[in-house]
Write a structure and sequence with these properties.
The complex is a heterodimer of chains A (about 425) and B (about 190).
Chain A lengths: L6 H22 L3 H10 L4 H33 L12 E5 L2 E5 L5 E3 L13 E6 L5 E6 L3 E5 L6 E2 L12 E2 L5 E8 L2 E8 L6 E2 L6 E2 L3 E2 L5 E7 L7 E7 L5 E6 L6 E9 L5 E8 L3 E8 L6 E2 L11 E2 L5 E7 L6 E7 L6 E4 L2 E8 L5 E7 H6 L15 E7 L6 E4 L7 E3 L4
Antiparallel strand pairs in A: 1-2, 1-29, 2-3, 4-5, 5-6, 6-7, 8-9, 9-10, 10-11, 12-14, 13-14, 14-15, 15-16, 17-18, 18-19, 19-20, 21-22, 22-23, 23-24, 25-26, 26-27, 27-28
Chain B lengths: L6 H6 L6 H24 L3 H17 L10 H19 L36 H13 L2 H12 L4 H8 L3 H23 L1
Helix pairs in contact in B: 2-3, 2-4, 2-6, 3-4, 4-6, 5-8, 6-7, 6-8, 7-8
The chains are: A alpha+beta (about 425), B mainly alpha (about 190).
Chain lengths: ~425, ~190
């Protein structure tokens, strides 16, 4: 019998490892004095947090009351037949261990878990509607599954030996998926049919490839990649979707220490690609570049710390979260595609999901503790253990206040699909 | 309550001018070494472990006038640290994952404090192959599973205490422990092949 099957042997090795890892953490961390200074520094920011949170809470309550009154009036006057509220399709979200779909009439369907996670405590899930609105991609920490809108017809794209390296992307015609997989300690992009067949590697020349984005015509795939494991020699690449070619379309400008190119978003007309980079390994910057590699330009302020740009479906705007490195707060911004009109739409964006409505008029996002307290850590936040707080809001581009869509905490991402 | 005021503890964090800071210094000196180890067992990155500990100490400091039971302070702090660490771990799968890239080769930490990442340290005094295999397997455990491992197997809390601290039923703790141990054992076996 192998030593590994001996419980005493395994327990000794495990305890040795836990002791070692704990000691490493203690050695690697800042001193107690430095941490104390961080704790002491926090109250100075508390005043701002009080006014903002109080203002937000008050306005939210008023807004909820107004919306409730409006809905009640509509129900009385419009009879019982539910009618679509917008031309947009269903909203999908993960909460309470299940995937839920809210159709445009407001009816919520519980699809169940859909994708298995890595046992109790595992993560589930990030979500993405197919462009034709017929199917939902559900990605947990262990597998990627595609299911119909009602949860039936689930197909598992991944095998037991696969390790996902990020969120897969639908092809524009909804027939294929581009997936980043862990390979040889790095990662590579593969394209497969939406039923998991015909898997083919399309990335090359890179040690690791970040999650991809398809060109609107479905012939090319953009991704950020690094040549070296430390991520310091990074570029934006465009590969043919059939794997036949690959080219670099963006490098760091001379003298700029940019790394970790990622999160590409292709403009709907196929002409430009928005993406983010890290500067000095810490601060994020947004860039756009023509698909042929010309016209590299920074989007917005270099110090803005914007990341994860998302082009609106109509191509007119780019939405992105902005991270405050001092406060930890994350806010939601939008900017016109030509770089003008930078506008803050909402504050305190939480950890999961920002989604454009298919009609490009609104943006869905989660707001709550992770944005407001866990990151910001002001003294005004209630104890998250005692008073969980999170909700999903939608905000328009017209400057009107955000509206509550779901009063629930999310386990994972959000997705807003179109009507098939 | 009044915080423990040990002159040794205050001396460890240096001379501070204000009595309030002396009290906070004593709190940090007494609990920080334990808390940072506990958080380090749940978080991927040392910076995240520091954030979790900071959150716990801030809450303790904020409630210093209402917390009466000194004996319960340590487990209370441990509870906050672990729950914060779990939140950070879950967040790593979401939108903000790029703020806290997981310590995998696919997204190497290139931040200024990257060299302080615990997983990059060598493993003196233990079999390197075993340690490496356990590192990989442990790195794949979700934060909630690491939390019960840290509280029960490392800190020595009972199953019942662990369940109360994490905020889940006892059976869930047993399930997470069983899954975590199986994955670690599988990882060790895989590494030895």
């Amino acid at each position: 019998m192998s030593l590994l099957h001996n419980d005493d042997y395994f327990d000794r090795r495990l305890h040795e490892f836990l002791d070692l890892r704990a000691e490493e953490s203690a050695l690697a961390s800042i001193s107690g004095e430095a941490l104390m200074q961080r704790v002491i520094a926090r109250p100075q920011r508390a005043g701002l947090g009080v006014s903002r949170r109080s203002l937000f809470a008050g306005s939210t309550i008023l807004l909820i009351l107004l919306i409730a009154a409006l809905i009640a009036a509509l129900l009385v006057t419009a009879g019982h037949a539910p009618k679509p509220l917008t031309t947009n399709g269903p909203i999908a979200y993960a909460s309470g261990g299940s995937i839920h779909v809210v159709d445009p009439s407001g009816t919520t369907h519980d699809l169940g878990a859909v994708a298995a996670s890595s046992g109790d405590g595992g993560y589930c899930c990030n979500l993405s509607w197919s462009p034709d609105g017929r199917r939902l991609l559900v990605v947990s920490d262990t597998e990627a599954v595609i299911a119909n809108r009602d949860g039936t017809g689930a197909v598992i794209l991944t095998t037991a030996s696969d390790h996902l390296a990020g969120m897969p992307a639908w092809s524009p015609d909804s027939t294929r998926i581009a997936v980043p997989f862990v390979r040889d300690h790095g990662s590579q992009i593969f394209v497969m049919n939406a039923d998991g067949t015909n898997r083919q590697q399309v990335s090359s020349q890179v040690f690791y490839a970040n999650p991809p984005s398809w060109s609107p015509d479905g012939t090319q795939i953009a991704f950020g990649g690094a040549d070296l494991p430390d991520g310091t020699v990074a570029h934006l690449y465009v590969a043919a979707a059939d794997g036949s070619s690959i080219r670099r379309v963006a490098d760091a400008p001379p003298g700029q220490y940019l790394s970790d190119f990622g999160a590409p978003s292709w403009s709907p007309d196929g002409k430009r690609i928005a993406f983010d980079t890290k500067r000095y390994g810490q601060y994020f910057e947004l860039w756009t570049v023509n698909a042929d590699g010309s016209g590299l330009a920074r989007l917005g302020d270099a110090d803005a710390n914007g990341l994860l740009p998302r082009w609106s479906p109509d191509g007119a705007h780019i939405a992105f979260p902005v991270w405050g490195p001092d406060t930890g707060q994350v806010d939601l911004y939008v900017i016109a595609a030509d770089g003008s009109g930078l506008t803050k739409l909402a504050e305190q964006v939480a950890s999961d999901g920002i989604a454009w409505s298919p009609d490009s008029k609104r943006i869905l996002f989660e707001q709550g503790y992770d944005g407001q307290c866990s990151l910001q850590r002001t003294y005004t936040c209630p104890d998250p253990q005692d008073n969980p707080y999170s909700q999903v809001l939608s905000v328009g581009l017209d400057g009107s206040p955000p509206q509550t869509v779901l009063s629930t905490s999310l386990d994972g991402g959000l997705a807003w699909g179109g009507q098939p | 309550m009044s915080w423990p005021r040990t002159s040794d503890a205050a001396a460890e964090i240096g001379t501070v001018a204000e009595p309030v800071e002396r009290e906070l210094g004593a709190l940090v000196a007494q609990h920080y070494p334990r808390l940072i180890r506990l958080a380090g067992l749940v978080c991927d990155r040392t910076a995240d472990a520091e954030d979790a500990v900071q959150a716990a100490l801030e809450q303790a400091w904020r409630r210093r006038t209402t917390l009466r039971d000194i004996d319960r302070l340590a487990p209370w702090l441990d509870r906050i640290v672990v729950r914060e660490a779990i939140r950070i771990g879950k967040r790593q799968h979401g939108l903000l994952a790029r703020f806290w890239p997981a310590p995998r080769a696919i997204r190497p930490d290139t931040s200024d404090d990257g060299e302080r990442n615990a997983v990059d340290h060598p493993a003196p005094g233990t079999d390197p192959a075993t340690t490496a295999a356990l590192r990989i397997a442990y790195g794949r455990l979700p934060a909630p599973q690491r939390a019960v491992v840290a509280l029960h197997l490392y800190s020595g809390y009972s199953i019942e205490e662990t369940a109360a601290m994490v905020g889940v039923p006892v059976e869930t703790v047993r399930s997470r422990l069983r899954l975590a141990r199986q994955k670690l054992r599988d990882g060790l076996a895989e590494g030895s092949r």
